[in-house]
Amino acid sequence: MDFQDKTLNCRDCNKEFVWTAGEQSFYQEKGFQNPPARCPDCRAARKANRSSGQQYEITCAECGKTDTVPFQPRNPSTVLCSECFKAKRGQQPKEEPGEEPKTEEPKEEPTEEPKEEPKEKPKEKSKE
Ligand SMILES: [Zn+2]
Ligand SMILES: [Zn+2]
C-alpha cells in the first residue's frame, strides 16, 4: 500500500502537522486504528511531562512524614520517605553469602601466664 503524507490538526495546539507516509505505515504495522492526535512537538512535550513532572505523595511508614516520590509506590503502606529509605539502606549490611572474608579473628593467643615471681630474690641486701 502506498501512503501519502497527510496534514492533520494537532488536538493540543491546533497547529497543522504532517503525518508522514512513513509514520502511517508504522501505524499500520502496529495496528493503530487512529491517526496521531497531536503534533510531534506536543507529543514530545507530553512525554517529557510524564517522565519528569509526576510526583506521588506518600506517607512514610517509618516516621510518618509526608514526602513525594517520583514513582508510584507499589505498596503505599510500606513506603518510606527518602530519608528513612537512605537510613535503612545504610544500615543493612550487604549480605554476601559464602564470601564473608573472615578478618583478623585472632587465633588463640598464647595466654601469657602471669610470671611467677622469682622465688629466689636477688639478695640485694648483703650483710655488711
Ligand atoms: Zn501540537
Ligand atoms: Zn521517614
Please provide a brief summary of the model.
The protein is an alpha+beta fold and 128 residues long.
How much helix is in the residues? Answer: 25-40%
* Quaternary state of the chains: single chain
What gross morphology would you assign?
rod-shaped
Query: Could you report the average pLDDT, rounded to the nearest whole number?
Result: 81
Q: Please report the number of helical segments.
A: 3
- The portion of residues forming beta strands comes to 5-15%
Could you spell the SSE succession in H and E letters? EEHHEEH
Largest sheet: 2 strands, antiparallel
- Give the helix/strand class: alpha+beta
The low-confidence runs, each spanning 5 or more residues with pLDDT under 50, are none
Walk me through what this model shows.
The protein is of the alpha+beta class and 128 residues long. It has helices at residues 21-30, 40-52, 82-91, and strands at residues 6-9, 16-19, 56-59, 66-69. The protein has a two-stranded antiparallel sheet. A two-stranded antiparallel ribbon has the order 3-4. It is rod-shaped and about 130 Å long. The model has no long low-confidence stretch (mean pLDDT 81). The structure holds zinc ion (2 copies). Residues 60, 62-63, 65, 80-81, 83-84 line the site of one zinc ion (ZN).
Quick tags:
single chain, alpha+beta, 26% helix, two-stranded antiparallel sheet, binds zinc ion, 128 residues, 3 helices
SSE inventory with pairings:
Layout: E1 6-9, E2 16-19, H1 21-30, H2 40-52, E3 56-59, E4 66-69, H3 82-91
Antiparallel strand pairs: 1-2, 3-4
The structure holds zinc ion (2 copies).
One zinc ion (ZN) binds next to α2.
